[in-house]
Amino acid sequence: MEKMISYCGLDCEKCDAYLATLYDDEALREKTAKAWAELNNVPILPKDIDCMGCRGDGVKTVFCESLCEIRQCANKKGFDTCKDCLEMEKCNILGEIINNNPEALDNLKKNRK
User: What are the boundaries of each domain within the chain?
Assistant: First the structure.
């Protein structure tokens, strides 16, 4: 499976945090920090927007590194991604992502064994 597909099936290459890091784009960091802070109702600063993908090597956002329940669950179970889980389509933790992002579920399904 492509390493830029996250545990939940989202494509990290399309993530603003990844793009801001890849291109060292301070304006995109600021925009992303503001949007994510409002979305999550927590303070997020532009300096917090650095990520090279949740499954890859390198820096990750605080959320991806230590707060993402999906990443924690997959790692605890020893899964490459949620595609390895038999409960994937019924999972409460993954549910919001796949309900709001059908592409994420498609990414997981097409890489299932």
Answer: 12-110
